[in-house]
Amino acid sequence: MKVTRADVARLAGVSSATVSNVLNENNKVKEETAVRVRAAIKELDYRPDMIARSMVMKKTMQIGIVLENISNPFFGDIVRGFESAANEKGYFVNICTGFNKLDDYFDNFIIRRLDGVFVTAIPYKFKIDKLYHLVDKGIKVIVSGNVGADFRKVSSIENNHIEAMHIAMQYLYDLGHRDIAYLSGLGRNLPYDLRSIGYREMVEKLNLPCKDSLLFDGKFPYSTDMMDGFHYANELLDSGRKFTAVICVNDLMALGAMKALKARGLRIPEDVSVMGFDGISYGQYWEPTLTSMSMDKIQFGKKAFELLYTNMSRGSTGYFQNDLELVEGQSTAKCR
Amino acid sequence: MKVTRADVARLAGVSSATVSNVLNENNKVKEETAVRVRAAIKELDYRPDMIARSMVMKKTMQIGIVLENISNPFFGDIVRGFESAANEKGYFVNICTGFNKLDDYFDNFIIRRLDGVFVTAIPYKFKIDKLYHLVDKGIKVIVSGNVGADFRKVSSIENNHIEAMHIAMQYLYDLGHRDIAYLSGLGRNLPYDLRSIGYREMVEKLNLPCKDSLLFDGKFPYSTDMMDGFHYANELLDSGRKFTAVICVNDLMALGAMKALKARGLRIPEDVSVMGFDGISYGQYWEPTLTSMSMDKIQFGKKAFELLYTNMSRGSTGYFQNDLELVEGQSTAKCR
DNA sequence: GTGAAAGCGCTAACAT
DNA sequence: ATGTTAGCGCTTTCAC
């Protein structure tokens, strides 16, 4: 049988309300009685039931975090930062990772009355209306990767990928590269593909001869894993277009791309320079080590929770923009 | 205001019990009334509240999955398989990943009344008593990686890592290797380090000259990530001991180890053969591709859920042993 | 076939 | 300072 508050109350010779007051530490209870109650709690190994509590409090102290690829260590780190910050505030985190059916989670969030949700996934994976619907149902939301969101409804934390791409391009340009390919994985047709925007801005600004012939769009379902990098690099190679540097949408793709380039006998960085985004640690164990636009992912996760927490407790949405930093590896070098 | 069953009942001109009967499809309701009820549900955009339902049903339809390193794609795949199987049965999965404080989750599982838990983590990360305590509280448990568990209390799904290690050793032996190092990450002092057991059995059986001088134990907190492989490989190199092959506890460590070996000018596989366990896809993008004792991780996750499901619905624990298969890459070759 | 009512374990007025 | 009680939204007998 389940031990309830009533059992504790009976054993301690008090009412269940008194037990509540002891547990919720609003020191309304005389120390003498509190001691008796605590003893009873211990004796019965009683634990308050969160379900019943959620029922009346209208708070579940549960947060969902939705992401596409749990195996990408980039997200792994973000999750860690987010979760540890959430745990500190007493929240329990649901990690939801479904490669394609993210929408289904949203319905679940509603019927399970989550307090908040952190969605870090590219927007085509879900319907934005579904997201707003969460908000209508009283669930606070923070998004990342979704530039088009209505900031009055949801909080937002974004990486400044446009600026980061500018830095990357300028860096390669300064090394003498002119034929810089970009393997997007996403695509210029997707409005939230900020790196593509930054890329094209720099092609323009630096007056690169390739125009946008070296921008390789991704294809549905816009997967950006290692194997995709391998695939898109081969596409680049097969195109026969001239290039001396390759930027990839993320490190995972960059690592896969390097594999493809090497397989065709190209040396990195002697023949071709390669860069990624994210700064995942695996990049440092590759051969050669990967140059990347890097960031503090744990911190990013923490910050995301903070914004969500503010939203949950004060009801106000917020916005944060995160800057990336160039970390040089051995995968880039002067253009010969 | 929240839409409740009562609202629907009122609009449809029936009682809330009838609404329940419609929703739970126990066709006790005349089709004519059911139609009216469904119309009311749609009109009000009503959704049953899982919290209230959990309250009375004493089932939350929530399952926790506890793992140590979310970023290891090995676990990522297992989670995917597990989660998709769980979702099909209507369960919502909580992924819990904390590098060290796994115990805390267990308390949470109790007060949140999860129906079941899948723990795939090495046992020293949590107290086994805490695990049994879950069972006492009515939460069904399946473990993986914990050979010592009481099978009457918890279900279990294990990889046959002893056998797999035998296969790996025999394979290297047949290639002519005699000085085969094993970077355990865990350690022979940990009873659940099955690979170490298998290793020592084969050293004995094949009468390898190295005895166990080439078995490198891990150190607390027994992390087995890429950087650990790098670290332990350096330890091996620094020991000055002769070796022609290296087996690592998992692929991630093997990839890190390759980095260290190459950094000292050793060629793989010409100078040294390297093998891992798990068969993660990243291994196929490395240079050279990794030979590994591989397995179907998605299937493993599915199977884990099935066992848990049986446990939850019929109350009977179960056991499954999974076999690994040698997948050759370019990281192993004949010993010169 | 449908409705009334009790109860799941808790919190939060409101009484005492 | 402590107890009583009315819900929270649902399921489930048990009547009708």
From TrEMBL, chains A, B:
This is LacI family transcriptional regulator. InterPro entries: HTH_LacI (IPR000843), Lambda_DNA-bd_dom_sf (IPR010982), Peripla_BP/Lac1_sug-bd_dom (IPR001761), Peripla_BP_I (IPR028082). PANTHER family: HTH-TYPE TRANSCRIPTIONAL REGULATOR GALS, LACI-RELATED TRANSCRIPTIONAL REPRESSOR. Residues 3-57 form the HTH lacI-type domain. SMART domains: HTH_LACI (SM00354). SUPFAM superfamilies: lambda repressor-like DNA-binding domains, Periplasmic binding protein-like I. CDD domains: HTH_LacI (cd01392), PBP1_LacI_sugar_binding-like (cd06267).
